[in-house]
Design a protein that fits this description.
This protein has a domain of 145 residues: Glutaredoxin (3-Layer(aba) Sandwich), CATH 3.40.30. It is 32% helix and 19% strand. The protein is α+β, with helices and mostly antiparallel strands.
């Protein structure tokens, strides 16, 4: 039996028929039943990420040029010395609703959700936003909105060549020396999930780079959780903190034990 609530009776809205109120035992039973399905979804998501890491690559042969804070930069400059690059095309330009004071509402929500970039950088990954707005307008908008991700001006056919000239989207690239490859692309509702460190890493060719992942032979992998750090404390090549190793080992063991109990 559902329970009508007062929340749905204001301003002529329909009455909300909420789920039943049950005992603690019944609530825990319902939650555990749903947890089995949630764990299955998590495993399916991990399997999909593993398949994504095995997708074929496409060579990028054009020399794209962008405008950055220091002037013109090449496409490889966007990697900032790292191997992986995630590029989100945000709509901020003449003709977009809100111009020149605001970027697209949806693209702005994506920007608001971006986690601290130090964690991506620690996994050899750079995130960059690109738009067709002039450099000065991008700098003004970033300052006003408190956004800190690198953001560049598109000057050529980059957006048209990578499927983001008429709609937002996220492209992923891998750099091997001077060679660059396109490895993945998502758009539409696929962009809704983006923002967290984990979801960004899960669409890259190298993944989270932890030993539990199903990755092709030879891919870089480090012990699970051990690379995690405070965003202002990453030091390249530093050994994991001994205390954190103990804490994360205990946490991982507990997680694995709980996960085993929910497997069908």
């Amino acid at each position: 039996m559902t329970i009508p609530t007062e929340n749905g009776r204001k301003d002529g809205q329909a009455v909300m028929h909420t789920p039943p109120v049950v005992s603690t035992e019944a609530w825990e039973a319902a939650r555990n039943e749903l947890l089995v399905k949630e764990k299955a979804q998590t495993r399916a998501r991990d399997a999909l990420a593993a398949e994504r890491r095995r997708m074929p690559w496409m060579a990028v042969t054009k020399d794209y040029v962008f405008e950055g804070p220091a002037g013109k930069v090449s496409f490889t400059d966007l990697f900032d010395g790292r191997r992986q690059l995630i590029v989100y095309r945000a709509f901020f330009e003449p003709g977009v609703f809100g111009w020149p004071d605001q970027a697209c509402r949806g693209c702005s929500m994506v920007a608001d959700q971006v986690a601290h970039l130090a964690h991506l950088n620690a996994r050899d990954t750079t995130l960059a936003f690109v738009s067709r707005a002039p450099r000065a307008d991008i700098a003004r908008l970033k300052k006003r909105m408190g956004w800190e991700m690198p953001w560049f001006t598109i000057t050529d056919s980059f957006d048209a060549d990578f499927g983001v000239d008429e709609w937002h989207g996220t492209n992923v690239f891998y750099r091997d020396g001077d060679r660059v490859f396109r490895t993945y692309f998502l758009n539409n509702r696929g962009d809704e999930q983006m923002g967290s460190t984990w979801n960004y890493l899960d669409i890259t060719p190298l993944g989270r780079q932890e030993v539990w992942e199903d990755s092709p032979e030879g891919y870089p992998q480090t012990p699970t959780y051990k690379w995690w750090n405070w965003h202002d404390s990453y030091v390249e090549g530093a050994a994991p903190d001994k205390k954190w190793v103990e804490v994360s080992d205990a946490g991982e063991a507990a997680f694995r034990d709980e996960d085993a109990k929910t497997k069908p």
